[in-house]
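A quick aside before the break. I want you to see a complete sequence-to-structure record at least once, exactly as it would be stored in a machine-readable document. Don't worry about memorizing anything.
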Amino acid sequence: MALAASASAGPTDQYAPIDRPGPRLSVPAADLRASVKCTPSAYHSRREVALLVPGTGVGPIEAYAWNWLAALDKADYPHCAVTLPGNSVGDVQESAEYVVHAIRHTYRISRSKIAVIGASQGGVSPRFALRFWPDTRAMVADYVGLAAVNHGSSQNDIAYPDGNGPAFALQLKRTSKFIEAMNSGKETFPGISYTSLSTSHDQFVTPEGTTDLSGPASRVANISLQSICPADSSDHIGIGTSDAVAYALAMNALTHAGPADPEAVSTSVCDQTLMPGVDPSTYESDLAAFIKTSTANITKARVLPAEPTLKPYVFASR
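That is the input. The structure line, written in tokens, reads:
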């Protein structure tokens, strides 16, 4: 069963109107072009191409090669993936520009609306892109967030009460200006089906419900893994890398009109230990490598005294 959507975010008057054209991308064009890789089947695809966006501390290979990309390859499902700057430990506003380009590129080569899938911070940068570059909304059919930090996390508020942290962590506080701006005006937009998945065992994105998005049930589904499989033990990392229920819900969203429908997912998925694409014989080492890489990159992230300043285009008066 889908959970009730959270209330819409607050202040809107200081932020850009939701339909004001977005700014020109500031990232060099060559860097943007190099950041997106697609399968041959993504070109002129008859199916909804999946664009995968990695989370904090990792690139698409570390995040998805051993799970999602392998599963989509096995199913012969068209997909693209975007590499974000600095392994996503810097300013999320910069990452969002890469996502804007990736959406436009994937839409252009596929010649039809696409799906965006992101885990943790990888579910946030696409929403920032959709909010401040409104042309991208007509290019996206589905958004799937895997424990996306949609309203910030109290863990970050506790860890960085006075700043002095990595840019992304300060921006993903529940009290951040970044989160307020991203959720201003509207959290979700007509024409896009939103599926936001969460787990009650999330150790990083808290409190429970902070992943939820507001909007009509016809196009917004907020779903806890435990509402389908009560014994599902996946945590924040598991929901984005190996959980079979999350994969089943995401693929349901991509292959049917509207957001994921929990009623359409067989409860037999609860008996699956790992999602398709994950090799049981290498799962432990693959997971360990993912955690090691992410932890190392986060540890090396530059510490800032305060949240990065919001860009001028974010505001009504710029």
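Two observations worth writing down. DSSP finds eleven helices and nine strands in the chain. The first strand starts at residue 36 and ends at 38. We'll return to this after the break.
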